[in-house]
Amino acid sequence: MSHTVITTTTTTRTTGDGFSLNTGYTRTIPGLLKIGQMLALLIAFLCVRCVRGWPSWAAFQYFEVVALWFLIAFLIFFLMHLFRLQAKMPCINWPLTEFFHYSVGTVLILIASIVAAVNNGGVSALVAATVFGFIATFLMAVSLWTSYSVTCGPHQTGASV
């Protein structure tokens, strides 16, 4: 009796250094939300940073730190999606990580914006920073809701009832 063994070899080639730019992400809803969040946080940070003589030093220092931290965090997430780097690190659950950052960011930016609204002293740049803080909070809440539906939403199972 004769046996035949067939072996198939598949190779995958990447061009260049393996990075591919996902420019289509900038036109998706999550991409546009991240761009809007980063712009709102950048404008809020710059409005606070450029004002001299804050009415409440501690409140606006907190506002600056929170705005800058989440600006950097969302920039990192944006670049991760833009260059498709999350596929290179499969050990991290990226949707859950983004959900966590959106939930913490929404709460902390909301608190910072409320504190800034109470302590702005009528300084127009600080009022503008507060408004952009609330805009960033709204955009983060929308991202939180959309990432929740991806991360924790209903999943299809193979079980039949």
UniProtKB/TrEMBL annotation:
<dbReference type="InterPro" id="IPR050578">
    <property type="entry name" value="MARVEL-CKLF_proteins"/>
</dbReference>
<feature type="domain" description="MARVEL">
    <location>
        <begin position="25"/>
        <end position="152"/>
    </location>
</feature>
<dbReference type="InterPro" id="IPR008253">
    <property type="entry name" value="Marvel"/>
</dbReference>
<keyword id="KW-0472">Membrane</keyword>
<feature type="transmembrane region" description="Helical">
    <location>
        <begin position="29"/>
        <end position="48"/>
    </location>
</feature>
<feature type="transmembrane region" description="Helical">
    <location>
        <begin position="99"/>
        <end position="118"/>
    </location>
</feature>
<keyword id="KW-0812">Transmembrane</keyword>
<feature type="transmembrane region" description="Helical">
    <location>
        <begin position="125"/>
        <end position="145"/>
    </location>
</feature>
<feature type="transmembrane region" description="Helical">
    <location>
        <begin position="60"/>
        <end position="79"/>
    </location>
</feature>
<dbReference type="Pfam" id="PF01284">
    <property type="entry name" value="MARVEL"/>
</dbReference>
<protein>
    <submittedName>
        <fullName>CKLF-like MARVEL transmembrane domain containing 7</fullName>
    </submittedName>
</protein>
<dbReference type="GO" id="GO:0016020">
    <property type="term" value="C:membrane"/>
</dbReference>
<keyword id="KW-1133">Transmembrane helix</keyword>
